[in-house]
Design brief:
- Helix content is 75%, strand content 0%.
- It has helices at 3-21, 26-35, 38-44, 46-49, 54-67.
- Helix 1 packs across helix 2 (26-35) and helix 1 crosses helix 5.
- The chain starts with a helix and ends in a 5-residue tail after the last helix.
C-alpha cells in the first residue's frame, strides 16, 4: 500500500474515532478538524502520530484545535 493510501486510511480512522469520542457525526468531526487545523496536523505529523494510540491522537487533536480556536 502506498504512503498516500496509508495516510488517507489513517486520517479517516482518526476522524471516525474523534467523532465517536465527542458524539459528533463524521461530517461534523471532519469539518471541525479541517477548520481548526487538525487534518493538516495529521498529515504533517503522520510519521509520529500513527505510532500512538487513537486515544492519544484524539487528545493531541483536541489540544491543537483548542489552540486554534476550537471549543471541543
Amino acid at each position: 500500500m502506498s504512503y498516500q493510501r496509508r495516510l488517507i486510511n489513517y486520517t479517516v480512522a482518526c476522524v471516525n474515532v474523534f467523532a465517536d469520542t465527542f458524539n459528533m457525526s463524521v461530517k461534523e468531526a471532519y469539518r471541525y478538524l479541517r477548520d481548526y487545523k487538525g487534518i493538516a496536523f495529521l498529515k504533517d505529523f503522520y510519521e509520529e502520530e500513527h505510532l500512538l494510540s487513537f486515544e492519544n491522537v484524539v487528545e493531541d487533536l483536541q489540544v491543537l484545535c483548542r489552540r486554534n480556536g476550537g471549543n471541543v
